[in-house]
Design goal:
- This protein is mostly beta strands.
- It has one domain: PCu(A)C copper chaperone (Immunoglobulin-like), CATH 2.60.40.1890.
- Helix content is 11%, strand content 47%.
- The protein has 2 helices and 10 strands.
- Strands 1, 2, 3, 4, 5, 6, 7, 8, 9 and 10 form a 10-stranded mixed β-sheet that branches.
- A hairpin with a 7-residue loop joins strand 1 and strand 2.
- It is globular.
- Bound molecules: copper (II) ion.
- Copper (II) ion (CU) binds next to strand 8.
């Protein structure tokens, strides 16, 4: 009972991520999700689209979540044909632009998961930006189809942290 109340609250938070931002309206988070990984996987990643309708570039500086011991901002680089993950200090969202966090590109790395993820679980995330604002979102755990896209999307599990 208590659990379902919490889940409902998380779903509401996911449905109305803009409420806390109504006054300013510059940053919007769309379609957040966390990759479903096998029960014993040490890490997963969160993806989303961050839109900036303001006239100045914004930077995502930090992400936090109770779902993992450590949360890092990552990107992928192409190192002589091999896709590798790298930690980054920040992820920029251009003025009047958007940045997509997606497999093979920018992502929020969830390292040392607190518990196994199940499809449909909601993972709370707090995002901190360079203007001092924060956004609390809830990202559902989703199965990602590999759909014939081999290396870039598949190498998460093999990466060492
Ligand atoms: Cu990563």
């Amino acid at each position: 009972m208590k659990h379902s109340t919490i889940r409902r609250a998380l779903l509401l938070a996911a449905a109305f991520p803009l409420l806390s931002f109504a006054a300013d309206g510059a940053l919007r988070i769309d379609d957040p999700y966390v990759r479903l990984v096998p029960p014993n996987a040490p890490a997963s990643a969160a993806f989303m689209v961050i839109s900036n309708s303001g006239s100045t570039e914004r930077q995502l500086l930090k992400a936090q979540s109770p779902a993992a011991k450590s949360v890092e901002l990552h990107t992928h680089i192409n190192d002589h044909g091999v896709m590798k993950m790298r930690q980054v200090d920040r992820i920029a969202i251009k003025a009047n632009g958007q940045t997509e966090l997606k497999p093979g590109s920018y992502h929020i790395m969830l390292i040392d998961l607190a518990q196994a993820l199940n499809e449909g679980d909601s993972v709370p995330l707090t995002l901190s930006f360079d203007d001092g604002s924060t956004q609390q979102i809830s990202a559902p755990v989703r199965r990602i189809q590999a759909a014939g896209a081999p290396a870039p999307a598949m190498d998460h599990g093999a990466m060492k942290h």
